[in-house]
Write a structure and sequence with these properties.
It contains 7 helices and 14 strands. By secondary structure, it is α+β, with helices and mostly antiparallel strands. The strands form 3 sheets. Strands 1, 2, 3, 4, 5, 8, 9, 10, 11 and 12 form a 10-stranded mixed β-sheet that branches. The protein has a two-stranded antiparallel ribbon with strand order 6-7. A hairpin with a 6-residue loop joins strand 6 and strand 7. The chain is elongated.
Length: 272
Amino acid sequence: MMIANLLVSRHLDPSVLTAALAAAAHVPTTHVDLRHADDDQDGRDWYAPVLCTYHHLRGDLALSLDIQVQGEQVRDVRDATVTSAGEPRLAAALAHRTGAGVLYPDDRIDPQTYWLADPSGLVTRVRLLTTEDDPPVHTVDAVEAPSLAFPHAEVTPLAEILREYPVPTPLADATGLSTPAAVSLTIWERMVRRMAADWPPSGRYLPELYAHDLAARDHFAREIATCPQHERTPLLAAAARIDALFRTLTVDTTEGTGSWWRTRVPRRTPWP
């Protein structure tokens, strides 16, 4: 059995939602048990191939769906084949058949980030803000790519995703240190490695995060002066190699002021 928790961008007539669920799960509409959460639950077919309980929402989202699909199959919207079910496939199928945007939880990097299956076929991440009102108001604050379902949301990389994206830091790690200078060096190496890989995961970055990374290099320059010699030697050796890589990935400019790393800019700027 597959369990899915989906959020839908607009209201859908129960008959439309029933038909979309049936088509996605490749079952007749009579095999879909759909009921509002506040309705009488007596008489429900709790063993139906598709069981869905829905709630009404306020704001940019209109419906919350709690779905169970027996048999773990869903019809793929791309070629109509029946494939293994999961929230991403079910969300895409519902978006395709209803014309609504459908959100589903991401890997929990951040509780405000969700995946969006857009009716255009796009799949991207979004940031969802929820007020503390009762009932709460939901706002899709930002999307990582333009969306038909949320055309007024800001199109931008999500800082919370970029911060948590895994980037190896072999040189900082090899020092075996966890001092403030080592932490600053790790932040600096993360950015330089990210630049070397052309800014994964999406080829974009944010100016405020880049400024934070430059500040980490500033901190390292101050912190290294107070380190004991046995710590300073491996940290400076690692920093020299990271700095050398940074130089190959950037160009000198007269626009910056201060330390040499602030006078250089990426060869490809990863923001508008």
